[in-house]
Amino acid sequence: MGDNSLFCKSGGCTAKLGAGLLGYVLDKIPRPLYDKNLLVGYDSKDDAAVYQVTENLAIVQTLDFFPPMVSDPYLFGQIAAANALSDIYAMGGEVKSALNIVCFPEQEDLNILGEILRGGAEKVTEAGGILSGGHSICDPEIKYGLSVMGTVAADRFYKNNGGRIGDKLILTKKLGVGIVCTADRVGEAAKESVDEAVESMTTLNKYTVEICADYRIHACTDVTGFGFLGHLHEMMAQNLSCRIDSSKILTIRGAFDCAEEFLLTAAGQKNRNHTASFVKFDGIAFAMEEILFDPQTSGGLLVAVDKRDADALLRKLTEAGIPASQVGEILEKQENEILVF
Amino acid sequence: MREKKIVVNAVGDTCPIPVVKTKQAIGQLGGSGTVEVYVDNEIAVQNLSKMAVQKGYRIRSEKQNDQKYVVLLYIGSDAGSDIPTEDALSCSTKVKRDLVVAVSSSVMGEGDAELGRVLMKGFFYALSQQDILPKTILFYNSGAFLTCGEADTVSDLKQLEAEGVEILTCGTCLNHYQLTDQLKVGGVTNMYAIAEKMTGAGFVIKP
Fold first, then answer.
1. What's the domain range around B55?
2. pLDDT digits 0-9 by tens, B111-136
3. Within an 8 Å CB–CB cutoff, is residue A141 touching chain B?
4. B60 and B20 within one domain
5. What is the pLDDT of residues A29-68, one digit of tens each?
6. What domains sit in chain A, N to C, each tagged with a CATH number?
7. Do A264 and B15 touch (CB under 8 A)?
8. ipTM field
9. According to the model, what pLDDT value does residue A312 have?
């Protein structure tokens, strides 16, 4: 594996289709028949679907898979699984079961696949879920992920667009993993940077969401392929605005330097093209702009919490060792949807 | 002395490799000269442009076909000083999306024609004030009147053109309405180009 043979052209959430492109296609799909039990479908661009099955219980369904962004297959398996499981957490749910999704070249060493699946299985177990099957196909490029089912109380799940004016915005992981992994691909990232990025990507958002359960959370999403600003834009849902304090944005060590060296992804630029018109940067360094657009693989949760609960939630998260930071607040609609200062 | 020039072929390379190769070439120039980079997608052009803007290099780019773009970066104090900086693709505040506006009539909407003319004038003013501008505005059939003569839309269209929006009027239509020598803003185009612009657009807006 030393020759980076696992790598494909663009890995992780940098391989995601751009938000603009996706929206264009989704807008053309005929809307399904109304079903009152479908509490969250794709019309709100949320993280996972929520379907009510009994008076009190809803299931949360999601799937996510992508090509490798690190060369170690075991770590790739962990990251892909943590990323897929994260969508359940973004809805405030609990993981119940998961199915493997595998694309693998026929002639490739099966030990590599074994390592990927081992990494993934460990994360499903850590999440408290059970692996219950899967599907694999031959493909020239390795891809792996999970289809995950979780549960949530039908009256208490987190939408991505439920934020209210005055809510504080808390981000629970550092930004910059996309830039660091990209720099690593061309041999320009320091080992400590890559190690910190991998540790961040393999960390489940489970612990964050368990703490959130005790507080008044109005909206939640996980920060992945569309970058911090892209997911924040979806959270603003056309009727809210926000201010983001860039000094509160925590970044993976070395990410800022890599951005200054223009080690930038195509996906980051697509995010900029899609989201920049909603954002006003007030005296922000170019490298920080890039970090805010950087596609994250297995990123943290972005939580809109009642302002009365914000300090207590932040304290609890910090005590639990989660690199959480209060990065901004929600305002009534302004001329600029997102102001970064 | 002839100016030093290095050619970089980054066709088939995914980001950030075009930027990495270009940075190496700039290093080899040792101070001043031109780097000519070939890439196969517009996003790579944009990432090169971001670097150029940050580093203060003059830059010019041209799309040769759907899979080939050439980007020229002028490094050093004198290199490319004849290139106006406005030419640089910058991270402009006015984002141009893959948006095409197609104008098939001199009036907006159906109903009273006078109202329709007022609305159309208002539309182009409002369009010129948007944060997101279209890439191209196409005028055909009686839409051709809007780019010609004393039409009250011409000044807003000139403003849009100055912001980098491509303004094109159908040549056959200009001919038909005998407007050919009265065109005041933008260029003349044909049905092949109109069809190509519309099929290549992410969105087509028809006011």
1. 5-75
2. 888 899 899 999 998 888 887 888 89
3. no
4. yes
5. 776 667 888 988 866 666 788 999 999 999 999 999 999 9
6. 4-153 (3.30.1330.10), 168-340 (3.90.650.10)
7. yes
8. 0.82
9. 98
Q: Do B59 and B97 belong together in one domain?
A: no
Chain B positions touching A272 (Cβ under 8 A) are: 46, 91
Residues of chain B with C-beta less than 8 angstroms from the C-beta of A269: 15, 43, 46-47, 50
B51 vs chain A: nearest CA distance in angstroms? 6
CB contact under 8 A, B203 and A24: yes
The nearest alpha carbon in chain A to B48 belongs to A262
In a domain, B84, yes or no: no
Residue A84: both structure tokens together: 């897929």
Q: Are residues B156 and B179 in the same domain?
A: yes
> Is A212 one of the catalytic residues?
no
φ and ψ at residue A68, rounded to 5 degrees: -65, 145
CB contact under 8 A, B15 and A24: no
Smallest Cβ–Cβ distance between B16 and the set A20, A262, A273 belongs to A262
CA distances from B165 to A263, A271, A338, B154, B159 (A): 30, 22, 26, 14, 9
Please give the pLDDT value at position A24.
75
